Amino acid sequence: MVTAGLIHYILNLLHVTVHIRDVCVFLAPVFSGLTAISTYLLTRELWNQGAGLLAACFIAIVPGYISRSVAGSFDNEGIAIFALQFTYYLWVCSSPEGFGGVGHKLNTRLDAVSAWGGYVFIINLIPLHVFALLLMQRYSRRVYIGVFALLQAYAFLQYLKDRLTRQEFQTLFFLGISLAACIVFLTVIYLTYTGLSTSPSLHRCRSTSRPRGCPSSLISTSWSAPSQQAFGFASRTSMMNACLAGKVRKHVSEQEKAEEGLGPNIKSIVTMLMLMLLMMFAVHCTWVTSNAYSSPSVVLASYNHDGTRNILDDFREAYYWLRQNTDEHARVMSWWDYGYQIAGMANRTTLVDNNTWNNSHIALVGKAMSSNESAAYEIMRSLDVDYVLIIFGGVIGYSGDDINKFLWMVRIAEGEHPKDIRESDYFTPQGEFRVDKAGSPTLLNCLMYKMSYYRFGEMQLDFRTPPGFDRTRNAEIGNKDIKFKHLEEAFTSEHWLVRIYKVKRLENREALDHKLRSVVSRQKYTSKKVSVFPLRRDGFSCSLSFMMLSTTYSCDPHTHLQTPQKIKTTLNSRERKETSNNQ
């Protein structure tokens, strides 16, 4: 990321308008070409140009490096392999000259440090080589001078960093780098113009019979003077040449005999075999590149018996469902392998992704996946999880699903929570990891198992296999009666490759477990008294008597209803008034 950002910044300074996305896409292929060049240079220094060309061809088509250098592969190794090869090349070039070129090696090693965690191979191997050279007494004063100069430069930079602001320090640093580059450029132009810089072969003579980094065993001198001066020394060196002529001739004759030992037929056979191997390797690399690295990883393809190809687009289907059917602030819990895809394609927040450095956070997700539902629900509540996403390949036979990765979840969780999670609990007594009835009870009841095989026991894939047969593990699952209390299925893709579950929220008040109330009806009393009022034609007394006979009275002493005695007194008073009025 640092290298991509630096390239984008430099291009913007040069007024080259390039989007940062395009820089990230084409970063790996560009450094792949530079890796081939650095490999050629390194091999040429160690052997010859032919070996360098062959090594460059190999590094350009090797499948292990193609997977890290295709367009769109924004990984550390795309830059780090180039930094590794170029550092070794600079070190091999600088070793015979007394550890020169320190600045170039320092810059390359800093690039490797910023790009790749495997830079420890470089910073450990080079000091080991220096230590071996010191034991062989092949050091010079320039070693101490160079180290002393680097320490002084570092101390001076730290002093400026403490005294200046960050903006001023960056400005001064870039000015210093630019000034140094200008001085080197002008020096090269001056030496070329004045003629002081000529071919290296006119100034020094390298012994071609020794490898790089080895001390020269011969004293060889070359001259850039006219040929007359060379002939002037011929008389003084003729006796030495005569003494050495026999040894040289003997060495050449032995080499000729060794070459004559291999007949032309054997050479032809070996050459043909090597060419056939190279052709087969090139065909294999081309096939791997076209099938494995030329298609996106979120779209899978399978081939039928007749050669037709099926496209499995379950990943994009699930991510599109997440994007359209969940809240924009929803948090998704999944294993870290799918963090970047969920964040980039579904635009949802994930707990862990490919850039998570906190191992305890990854272990907490692994603990939730490997615990039972109740314990996992407490962890998900503490992490405020809304959805859980898993990958299940039992229907289509996809071997990269979460069940096959499950043991790594258990191991990482055990490293942080050894009291709660133990890897041995997920194996059978015979030490097997099985998903059928013989599997461990801890495995058959963990959250990952239940989410993967929920409703899978009802599915029969073909007539030759029983319901609940896992094509990836080639076994019938052991727990088919799976029910959830705290989760509910939210989405399952077409081929069951991606399954998403929604985490239920706690109710405001839990249901109480009390018994039904037995309601006892109160005892009713009906007055059996007959009417004492005389019958009248207007029907007033008759209706009143009927009302009194059919009225139900409460036995409650605190009631506000009138008693029969009060009603009788009231009616008698009314009757007397009516009689007096009639009279």
UniProtKB/TrEMBL annotation:
It is a multi-pass membrane protein. InterPro entries: Oligo_trans_STT3, STT3-PglB_core, STT3_N. Residues 332-388 form the STT3/PglB/AglB core domain. One of its GO terms (molecular function) is metal ion binding. Pathway: Protein modification; protein glycosylation. Its main location: endoplasmic reticulum. Keywords: Endoplasmic reticulum, Glycoprotein, Glycosyltransferase, Magnesium, Manganese, Membrane, Metal-binding, Transferase, Transmembrane, Transmembrane helix. The chain crosses the membrane at residues 20-43, 50-66, 116-136, 143-160, 172-196. Component of the oligosaccharyltransferase (OST) complex. There are 2 OST complexes, OST-A and OST-B, which contain STT3A or STT3B as catalytic subunit, respectively. OST-A and OST-B contain common core subunits RPN1, RPN2, OST48, OST4, DAD1 and TMEM258, and OST-B contains either MAGT1 or TUSC3 as specific accessory subunit. Belongs to the STT3 family. This is Dolichyl-diphosphooligosaccharide--protein glycosyltransferase subunit STT3B.
